[in-house]
Specification:
alpha+beta; binds heme C; 5 helices
Length: 200
């Protein structure tokens, strides 16, 4: 194949890629709702979403830190397994008309798998650098998605599996046989906190 032909094919693929990603993004932009939400509604949902996400991150972060300090990552797996979902649910219950979920394109716990709308949002977020919060509007509710980036401490359990101690690999395989949540690098989008807010 001639060099110029190869270059032309490359350009077509590049164009198709950008066309696809920009369409995806348009479907999840706050203004995609009809009628478009008022600025006050956007501000209200953002404030409530950030508040609930903050509560969850503080509570989960404290549990994770305490568990790693006292028993290392293997013991912390058991703690995560027992407390992560109840803590997520209770972070929503702390606010009226709010429910909270954590989700990701590569779940460790199948209970955190994305639905089709979550997936579209996560894919659009992953294409942004850095990922930004997204609001998805529905009849009567708004879903506020807060991106979760991979920090240094997360790599202990979500990084390159080749760096994991043997006991950790075994504990993960036992508790999460379908684990997809490894192979992340620092700063990667690990997932999102989804805060669903009832609209008045
Ligand atoms: C001690 C090991 C460990 C560390 C460190 C850790 N996680 Fe996890 N993570 C888990 C386990 C176990 C689960 C599955 C249990 C759950 O949360 O539902 C999980 C689940 C998650 C989920 C829910 C989606 C899924 O894959 O099921 C997200 C999001 C997440 N972790 C993000 C993070 C972030 C961000 C950090 C760093 C701030 C982090 N984790 C650090 C062990 C860990």
């Amino acid at each position: 194949m001639k060099k110029r032909t190869r270059f032309a094919i490359f350009l077509i693929f590049l164009f198709a890629f950008f066309a696809m990603t920009s369409c995806d993004r348009a479907t999840v932009e706050p203004v995609a709702a009809d009628p478009a939400p008022l600025p006050e509604a956007i501000a209200e949902v953002t404030a409530r979403g950030e508040a609930a996400a903050k509560v969850l991150m503080e509570r989960l972060g404290a549990q994770l830190k305490g568990a790693i300090e006292s028993g290392g990552p293997v013991a912390a797996i058991t703690v995560c397994q027992q407390v992560a979902i109840p803590l997520t649910t209770s972070a929503g219950a702390a606010f009226e008309g709010v429910t909270v979920k954590r989700t990701t394109l590569k779940p460790r716990n199948p209970a955190n798998a994305p639905d089709e709308h979550d997936r579209a949002v996560l894919e659009a977020m992953a294409a942004q650098s850095p990922p930004q919060p997204v609001i998805r509007w529905e009849d009567g509710v708004a879903h506020f998605y807060r991106p979760l980036l991979t920090q240094e401490v997360c790599l202990k359990c979500h990084g390159d599996p080749a760096t994991f101690p043997k006991e950790l690999t075994e504990a993960l395989a036992f508790a999460y046989p379908a684990d997809a949540a490894t192979g992340y690098a620092l700063g990667d989008l690990r997932g999102a906190i989804r805060v669903t807010v009832d609209l008045p």
